Amino acid sequence: MTYRVLISDPLSEDGIYPLREADNLEIDIITDLTPEQLVEKIADYDALLVRSQTKVTKEIIDAAKNLKIIGRAGVGVDNIDLKAATENGVIVVNAPDGNTNSAAEHTIAMLTALARKIPQAYYALKNKKWDRKTYVGVELKGKTLGVIGLGRIGREVALRAKGQRMNVIAYDPFLTAEKAEQMGVSQGTVEEVVQAADFITIHTPLLKETKNLINKAMFEKMKPGVQLINVARGGIINEEDLYEAIVAGKVAGAALDVFEVEPATDNKLLDLPEVIATPHLGASTIEAQESVAVDVSHDVVRLLSGVPVKNPVNMPAVPKDIMKKIEPYFYLAEKLGRFLTNLSDEVIKEINISYSGELHNLEVAPITRNTVKGLLKPHYGERINDVNAAYLAEQQGIVINENKTSDGKDYTNLIKVEIVTDTEAKAVSGTLLKGFGPRIVQVEDYRVDLVPEGHLIYIHHEDQPGAIGRVGTQLAKKDINIATMQVGRKDVGGAAIMLLTVDAEVTDQDLQVLLDLEDIYKVSAVEL
């Protein structure tokens, strides 16, 4: 059978070579189509390849009666209506790894240019100044590079830095001691990395947890004369705090490819001679542009040949009758995973998910994907979705186990999610109560009845008179209102928990005030 492929944005011939090689594909390259023209044409095609120019709207997808796959030659899919694609059973794929090498090389280029003050010296020479004394740099050999985020790009940067004979210390929530040893890098917390490093490079997504990660408090922990590189996302480094740290002489230099607001032509950091910058060029190479096209072309060939795709970004089609039964559990499953993220700071080795009661007869794989998505989303942000969650967990060496039983104990349906690390196991269970919606009904070994949403404070304490009152008093002093409270205990006078839903997000300082109270030994903020 022959399939028709439409390429509606400019892609290089090298990039679409896998399509040309397939003997069952007919390829049309028609760029600059108006939305109306694309609606008219799309019904004849089985696959659509785009970059960022074409906006693949619901109207276009609804008109695409034969469409099976949309390929985005790049990372972001903001120009594609994922909901409409999913509803129509159309798989959307992208190319998350295509820019890895280019971004890593750009980071090393920025690192070297920063260390040797190459842009400043070049600018002086262009202005007819032969000044060798001002632009004395430092060698990279023997220096310590701190890598925050050891994902696909961070790993490549670390390996290249080792080639420069640098020492590397890294932080990543999925970095185990074994992985660090295999790579020949040291492992540390974010604080340990910034304290030890001569140069610091950032390779994390921009999330709520990473926004302003490098701030005034972190600058105070750094060595005098430290230098920073950011080729990841603007906003991870607090730009105002960076400016002040450079002016104060704490930071000797910064190399920035990304900014909180782009274009960044008016950013005051660019007025500092210690700062070198490029206009978001991390992925801007001929090879990277070809690579992303090659990746999505391969996925198109895979799908049209009946083989699973490598980089899906939307939910695969599920029969409507099955979806109607399992979809109500998606929200609960994601929240259970998100809650567990806050129970352990250790690297997850296993995720064990048990389905009980009426769930044991249902297709639970999509529910599992939502659970894993909730667990990993604080680390991956919008990159993770229902489809690639299991794949990303596998990349980190996390084993996912499913178990089904008809015995729902006291519940019609029950989902129990457990994470296992080298030293501990933590679990949380939830159910759907008919007429009341999702509930978390067990946290670790404690029975609770909690709506999984909002701002929570999770407290471990000794079951002693006055503990609850002291917590309430301190929160009142901080003008933090308690909306609901759940308490649980194992034995009278023994270990106990409090789960408080509050009206506003709490700060680290708020948590420390509670931790300082008598009989309280652990306090966590949980955002659901």
From TrEMBL:
Entry's family note: Belongs to the D-isomer specific 2-hydroxyacid dehydrogenase family.
Q: List the Gene3D superfamilies hit by this protein, alphabetically.
A: 3.30.70.260, D-3-phosphoglycerate dehydrogenase, domain 3, NAD(P)-binding Rossmann-like Domain
Reactions listed under catalytic activity: (R)-2-hydroxyglutarate + NAD(+) = 2-oxoglutarate + NADH + H(+); (2R)-3-phosphoglycerate + NAD(+) = 3-phosphooxypyruvate + NADH + H(+)
- Quote the protein name from its UniProt record: D-3-phosphoglycerate dehydrogenase
Q: Where is the ACT domain?
A: 456-528
Q: Which domain of life is it from?
A: Bacteria
Sorted UniProt keywords: Amino-acid biosynthesis, NAD, Oxidoreductase, Serine biosynthesis
InterPro entries under this entry?
ACT-like_dom_sf, ACT_dom, ASB_dom_sf, D-isomer_2_OHA_DH_cat_dom, D-isomer_DH_CS, D-isomer_DH_CS1, D-isomer_DH_NAD-bd, NAD(P)-bd_dom_sf
PROSITE patterns recorded for this chain? ACT (PS51671), D_2_HYDROXYACID_DH_1 (PS00065), D_2_HYDROXYACID_DH_2 (PS00670)
Give the EC number(s) listed in the UniProt record.
1.1.1.95
Q: Output the NCBIfam families linked to this UniProt entry.
A: PGDH
* Its biological purpose: Catalyzes the reversible oxidation of 3-phospho-D-glycerate to 3-phosphonooxypyruvate, the first step of the phosphorylated L-serine biosynthesis pathway. Also catalyzes the reversible oxidation of 2-hydroxyglutarate to 2-oxoglutarate.
- Give the gene symbol: serA
Which top class of enzyme applies to this chain?
A: oxidoreductase
Q: Which pathway does the UniProt entry assign to this protein?
A: Amino-acid biosynthesis; L-serine biosynthesis; L-serine from 3-phospho-D-glycerate: step 1/3
